[in-house]
């Protein structure tokens, strides 16, 4: 049986929220990037007086993100989709200033969700460095739905980062339910821990298959939320493997920051420094991103295990 | 947040009450300056001295359930609306009123947040509105334009209240703006806008009240531009430094258009109030501020500089600067 795709999961969750959530409002900034949107009437000039729309479109991600904060303060639960990613990044930095300087808990606990459809790249990791936001980055279709529902259920600002390259992807039907909290071990292994998120989970899994052919068992951990980051699951994994790599697509601040965290939490158990696999950004398709990522991971793991020369010095 | 002072309903505000609020915010700003000089207040100080007619006129058209968003020079608006002086002496930078409680992120940064809140109010059909105060400098920022665009698009019940004191920092208005007024910019968004003499409290109140009423009735956003002048420097950072960068002649010109003395003269000339009544009101407002200082900083706090700072406000017939 074919399960729902990543895009269909988001679509269905949005439709459910539109139908059932008493306070949800949908805002869209920019062209929408082909991201799923709830199938309800948008506000427009044709909307009669007195009619209330739950869906609003405009340009200017910074204005839309700020307005979402205002709507949240006024008792609504806005879900704003910010496109393109570069505009979203500017908008979120602006919003961060508001949240970081707020003198009222109403602001730091404002119930709003900011959806950013992107295709990996430098933007993804940048978002996570902002602090104050809860950050969800689903890889599976099931998580896409579950983490989106969870984002709306939480009374805090949440960033929901969806990788557009994952839209057509469906889950293996054997995928177990995991709940909205904590990291998930996507593949167990004893030799090295690979921490990867969003589309890079696919790359890490592909790399693990290739490594298995050489007798190397890699454990793949999908943190699912980047903030909070489930350090405990990763640390327990490192207790078994004694080696860890963070897979990061593009030159983002996230990789080094996670690597430093793992080093600090599991220092006594590590047999090697925690390295960041820098996967070149800019892959347009999921298959290309996975191929690039898997190649870089395999190379780095073989070096880590002494099979090969340091890839950074080639 | 302490108990709010009982205010007369908007539209009903008396001339004497307008005068009282103007004295109150003048007294408070003078005392804040004095306390800052004595290093009892820390951080940067942005005073709205000389802008009392604008501060009171803008703030006095709101109902208690409306939301007021202020700039870093906007503490006077909150006091004019009923924030107890003691609380006004508590913090550093003034924040927008709870529940928003935002400290201004960038000069135009709060505007779009206020637009969102206003849309939220309209969608609940609450007949509440937002009034967002900002400086002339904010009109050059991108978010000012995004905010007007969104407010007009969504017919958000918001009044954009521009306090045009003709300087952004020490930079004169005309150096940074290609159009003569902030009002002119509103036309691009189909937003009704009015430019008023910000030294005239009644003119500010009338223009604001009509914009507020229209927003409340569902006619969409409005903009009021109050042309005023701060008679104190832009910001106080270092007690040792002289920070006034405008010409003495210009500052003196505007000190001679002092909104408090002007309003007082009008009331007396039109036989709308006795000078003695106004003196009693002024003395009472100053006593309120002095008491707030005493409660906040102990008896010594009031006896040192605060009394001196208040004297010219309490006895406005004396010559003073």
Structure notes:
The complex is a heterodimer of chains A (314) and B (321). Chain A has 314 residues and is of the alpha/beta class. Chain A has helices spanning 6-20, 61-73, 85-100, 105-108, 122-128, 141-153, 199-212, 231-241, 254-266, 286-304; strands spanning 24-29, 55-58, 77-82, 113-118, 134-136, 158-163, 184-187, 192-195, 218-222, 225-227, 244-249, 275-279. In chain A, helix 7 links the parallel strand 8 (192-195) and strand 9 (218-222). The longest helix of chain A is centred in the last third of the chain and has 19 residues, at 286-304. Chain B is 47% helix and 10% strand. Chain B is built from 13 helices and seven strands. Chain B has helices at residues 15-37, 52-59, 75-80, 85-88, 109-123, 142-153, 173-176, 182-186, 201-216, 248-255, 259-269, 275-297, 299-314; strands spanning 67-69, 130-135, 158-164, 167-168, 171-172, 192-197, 222-227. Chain B is globular, with a radius of gyration of 19 Å.
Task: Give the topology.
The complex is a heterodimer of chains A (about 325) and B (about 325).
Chain A (H helix, E strand, L loop, with lengths): L5 H15 L3 E6 L25 E4 L2 H13 L3 E6 L2 H16 L4 H4 L4 E6 L3 H7 L5 E3 L4 H13 L4 E6 L20 E4 L4 E4 L3 H14 L5 E5 L2 E3 L3 H11 L2 E6 L4 H13 L8 E5 L6 H19 L10
Parallel strand pairs in A: 1-2, 1-3, 3-4, 4-6, 5-6, 8-9, 8-11, 11-12
Antiparallel strand pairs in A: 5-10, 7-9
Chain B lengths: L14 H23 L14 H8 L7 E3 L5 H6 L4 H4 L20 H15 L6 E6 L6 H12 L4 E7 L2 E2 L2 E2 H4 L5 H5 L5 E6 L3 H16 L5 E6 L20 H8 L3 H11 L5 H23 L1 H16 L7
Parallel strand pairs in B: 1-2, 2-3, 3-7, 6-7
Antiparallel strand pairs in B: 4-5
């Amino acid at each position: 049986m074919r399960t729902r795709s990543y895009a269909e999961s988001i679509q269905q969750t949005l439709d459910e929220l539109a139908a059932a959530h008493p306070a949800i409002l949908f805002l869209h900034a920019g062209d929408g990037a082909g991201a799923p949107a709830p199938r309800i009437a948008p506000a427009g000039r044709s909307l009669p007086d007195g009619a209330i729309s739950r869906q609003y479109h405009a340009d200017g991600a910074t204005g839309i993100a700020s307005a979402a904060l205002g709507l949240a303060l006024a008792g609504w639960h806005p879900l704003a989709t910010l496109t393109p990613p570069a505009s979203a990044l500017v908008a979120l930095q602006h919003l961060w200033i508001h949240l970081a300087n707020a003198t009222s808990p109403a602001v730091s606990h404002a119930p709003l969700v900011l959806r950013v459809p992107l295709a990996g790249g430098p933007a993804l990791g940048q978002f996570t460095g902002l602090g104050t936001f809860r950050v969800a980055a689903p890889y599976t279709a099931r998580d896409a739905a579950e983490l989106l529902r969870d984002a709306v259920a939480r009374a805090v600002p949440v960033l929901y980062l969806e990788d557009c390259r994952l839209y057509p992807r469906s889950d293996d039907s054997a995928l177990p339910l995991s709940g909205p909290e904590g990291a998930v071990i996507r593949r167990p292994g004893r030799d090295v821990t690979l921490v990867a998120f969003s589309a890079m989970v696919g790359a890490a899994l592909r790399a693990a298959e290739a490594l298995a052919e050489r007798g190397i068992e890699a454990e793949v951990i999908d943190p699912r939320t980047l903030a909070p980051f489930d350090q405990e699951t990763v640390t327990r994994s490192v207790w078994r493997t004694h080696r860890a790599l963070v897979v990061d697509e593009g030159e983002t601040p996230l990789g080094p920051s996670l690597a430093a965290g793992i080093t600090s939490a599991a220092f006594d158990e590590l047999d090697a420094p925690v390295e960041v696999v820098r996967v070149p950004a800019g892959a347009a398709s999921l298959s290309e991103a996975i191929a690039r990522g898997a190649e870089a991971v395999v190379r780095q793991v073989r070096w880590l295990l002494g099979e090969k020369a340091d890839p950074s010095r080639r | 947040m302490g108990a709010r002072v009982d205010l007369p309903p908007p539209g009903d505000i008396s001339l004497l009450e307008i005068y009282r609020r103007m004295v109150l915010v003048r007294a408070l700003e003078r005392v804040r300056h004095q306390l800052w000089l004595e290093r009892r207040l820390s951080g940067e100080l942005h005073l709205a001295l000389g802008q009392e007619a604008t501060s009171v006129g803008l703030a006095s058209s709101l109902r208690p359930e409306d939301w007021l968003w202020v700039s870093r020079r906007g503490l006077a608006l909150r006091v004019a609306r009923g924030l107890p002086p003691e609380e006004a002496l508590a913090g550093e930078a003034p924040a927008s009123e709870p529940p928003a409680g935002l400290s201004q992120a960038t000069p135009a940064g709060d505007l779009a947040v206020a637009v969102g809140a206003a849309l939220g109010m309209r969608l609940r059909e609450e007949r509440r509105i937002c009034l967002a105060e900002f400086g002339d400098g904010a009109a050059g920022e991108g978010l000012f334009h995004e905010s007007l665009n969104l407010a007009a698009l969504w017919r958000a019940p918001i009044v954009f209240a521009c306090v045009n004191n003709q300087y952004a920092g020490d930079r004169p208005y005309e150096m940074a703006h290609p159009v003569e007024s902030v009002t002119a910019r509103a036309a691009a968004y189909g937003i009704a806008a009015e430019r008023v003499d910000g030294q005239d409290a009644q003119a500010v109140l009338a223009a604001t009240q009509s914009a507020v009423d229209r927003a409340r009735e569902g006619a969409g956003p409005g903009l009021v531009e109050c042309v005023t002048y701060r008679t104190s420097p832009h910001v106080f950072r270092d007690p040792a430094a002289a920070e006034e960068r405008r010409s003495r002649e210009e500052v003196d010109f505007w000190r001679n258009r002092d909104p408090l003395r002007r309003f007082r003269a009008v009331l007396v000339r039109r036989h709308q109030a006795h000078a003695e009544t106004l003196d009693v009101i002024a003395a009472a407002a100053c006593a309120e501020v002095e008491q707030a200082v005493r409660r906040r900083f102990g008896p010594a706090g009031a006896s040192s500089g605060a009394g001196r700072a208040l004297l010219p406000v309490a006895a406005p017939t004396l010559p003073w600067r």
